[in-house]
Structure formats: structure tokens, C-alpha cells
Design goal:
- The chain is 39% helix and 22% strand.
- It has 166 residues and is of the alpha/beta class.
- Helix 4 links the parallel strand 4 and strand 5.
- The protein starts with a strand and ends with a helix.
Length: 166
Amino acid sequence: MRQIILDTETTGLDSSLGHRIIEVAAIEVINRRITGRNFQRYVNPGREIDEGAKKVHGLTEVFLSDKPSFGEIVVDFLKFVSGSELIIHNAPFDVAFLDSELHLCNRQELGTYVEEIKDSLVIAKELHPGKRNSLDALCDRYRIDNSKRSLHGALLDSRLLAECYL
């Protein structure tokens, strides 16, 4: 079974308000083993990044100014995730942003390209009801070293989630 552990970073919290993806990353897992195949791209959102979002991921408009648009990476992204089962922590958030970006590229919704989308936050809440189930809390619970995570980053967070999930 081919699974993709995926995360995004964004300009803000609400895709319906025009916020955009600024980083997308994914880790390939086959038969419960991390393969070493990854997908990671920074994306120029063509808009300002909310100050609160900058505090979370540390990415700036200056850093992203020479990066490709989502439209320029969409083919490679879809090629990487197509046919897989996606595992995403708080999936509705990331899927809303990805669907918005795909819509702007005249593409179908993410769910049409993949076999299934699983929300690891829902899984964690079922396994650990009444407890904190953030990625940091899961790393603590499963003794996954997240000491290099001073800021959120899509690739690092995908790697940590892959370890927690497995």
C-alpha cells in the first residue's frame, strides 16, 4: 500500500479569504516503511503573509519572491500524490487549501486524484480521547524527537507525522 504523509504551510488560516499555500511537502510510505522519496516545494503565493502565520513558520514574502507559483508545481505535485492514500494531520485544513489551489489551476478537487484521505488528528482523538493530540503532543507521547522543530515546516512536520503514524 502506498501512503503519502502530507503537510502544508499557508499565508493565513482561511483559504476562503484568499489565503494561499506557501509550502507543500509529502513523504512516501510503502508497506509501512518510509521510502526516502519526498516532495517539497516552496510556493510564491502572490500575496502578503499574515504576521501570525509568519510567527508559526518563519517564511517571508522576500524568501518566497523567487519561488514558483502553485500552478507551476501542480503537475509534479499531482504526479507524486496520485493513486495514494493521503495521511494529513487536521486534514480539512490542508485539503481546503489544496482544493482552493487546484481550483485556481482549473483542476479537480484533491480527492479525485487519490484513493483516500485520512485525518490523523481524528485517528489520534479516537486512540487518545480527552488528551492533547497536536503533532507536538503526539511526538511527546510516542517519544519522537521533535527538538529541531522550533518553527513549523511542511517537510519536517510530514516527517514527524510519518514517524508518529507508523
